[in-house]
Specification:
157 residues; mainly alpha
Length: 157
């Protein structure tokens, strides 16, 4: 696979890949635990971070907003990792561990900072669900970002 030589190109690739891997995993998990709720509810949940309870009114636009917000978040985390990667030696020396740690950091930041500040209705933190959601971010965002960054920065410009 040929990697883009420009930063915007690698960011586009990383954001689309990690965003897609994450939303596919989250969709499978949501389908399993939601007891038959439509997948559009997952996207309404994401858009409720901005729109509050109005996101659950069945408006198809909320699904689109949820998907847009999801990819915005994925691109933001990708951008941050790509920016710090060349500055932290440990990221380059231990790419899998770096990806796992970064995924856990993303989960903690989203769980303890973003969600409480948003309009998202959420119940108590339950360990099994928390571990599954953390694992999704570690494997579907953290590791791919770390491996993409390693290859991108190893390629001569």
């Amino acid at each position: 696979m040929r990697f883009p030589s420009s930063f915007p190109g690698i960011l586009l690739m990383a954001g689309l890949l990690t965003g897609t891997l994450d939303i596919l995993s989250a969709s499978v998990y949501f389908t399993i635990v939601s007891h038959g709720q439509p997948l559009t509810r997952l996207f309404a949940y994401i858009s409720s971070g901005v729109f509050g309870k109005a996101a659950f009114n069945g408006d198809p636009a909320m699904t689109a907003w949820g998907l847009l917000f999801h990819y915005f978040i994925a691109f933001s985390w990708s951008f941050l990792f790509l920016m710090v990667y060349p500055k932290i030696t440990a990221l380059r020396q231990y790419p899998i561990a770096a990806g796992l740690v970064y995924g856990a950091i993303i989960w903690a930041f989203m769980q303890f900072i973003v969600l409480p500040l948003s309009h998202v209705p959420h119940g108590p933190l339950r360990l099994p669900g928390a571990l599954i959601n953390m694992a999704i971010l570690m494997v579907m965002i953290g590791i791919p970002l770390s491996l993409i960054s390693r290859r991108y920065y190893a390629t001569p410009r």
